[in-house]
């Protein structure tokens, strides 16, 4: 039996969660004894300088005897984060604030007779480089 056939035989049930540059794979697999376990794989895409890309993968094996404890702690941790920080992704909020600021600056600079204030600029000397 080839490795591919063995892999096909092992995988019982799978789900995929795509999250930007990350993809999560949830796979139910079978042990040699015929019992089931769960693998969670995070795959993250990285781009090289030459434009080519590669993936880095991290895998967790979760066995039935650990399901209850794992589920309880996962629920506790995710609830804590949502209660403390809400459901909004902070980096998205910063991105929106940056976009609003950029649009405001662009709108002001496009108005006739309006000049940009130089108070927010920093005088930089390149003599030290």
Structural overview:
The protein has 129 residues and is α+β, with helices and mostly antiparallel strands. It has one domain: Nuclear Transport Factor 2, Chain: A, CATH 3.10.450. Helices cover 37% and strands 32% of the residues. The longest helix is centred in the last third of the chain and has 21 residues, at 90-110. Residues 113-118 have low confidence and may be disordered.
- Percent strand: 25-35%
Q: The CATH topology, please? A: Nuclear Transport Factor 2, Chain: A
Question: What is the percent of helical residues?
Answer: 25-40%
Separation of termini?
63 Å
The ordered H/E elements are: HEEEEHH
Shape: flat
Low-confidence stretches: 113-118
Output the strand order for the largest sheet. Answer: 1-2-3-4
Q: How many domains make up the 3D coordinates?
A: 1
CATH level-two architecture: Roll
Rg over C-alpha atoms, rounded to the nearest angstrom: 25 Å
Which structural class should the secondary elements be placed in?
Answer: alpha+beta
- Mean of residue pLDDT values: 78
Helix segment count? 3
Number of extended strands: 4
Q: What's the CATH first level?
A: Alpha Beta
Sheet with the most strands? 4 strands, antiparallel
């Amino acid at each position: 039996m080839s490795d591919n056939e063995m892999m096909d035989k092992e995988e019982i049930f799978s789900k995929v969660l795509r999250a930007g540059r990350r993809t999560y794979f949830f796979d139910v697999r079978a042990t040699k004894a015929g019992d089931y376990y769960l693998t969670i794989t995070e795959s993250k895409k990285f781009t090289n300088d030459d434009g080519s890309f590669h993936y880095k993968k991290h895998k967790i094996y979760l066995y039935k005897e650990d399901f209850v404890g794992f589920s309880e702690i996962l629920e506790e941790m995710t609830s804590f984060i949502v209660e403390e920080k809400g459901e909004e992704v902070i980096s998205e909020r910063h991105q929106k604030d940056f976009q609003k600021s950029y649009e405001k600056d662009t709108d002001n600079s496009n108005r006739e007779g309006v000049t940009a204030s130089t108070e927010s600029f920093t005088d930089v000397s390149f003599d030290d480089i």
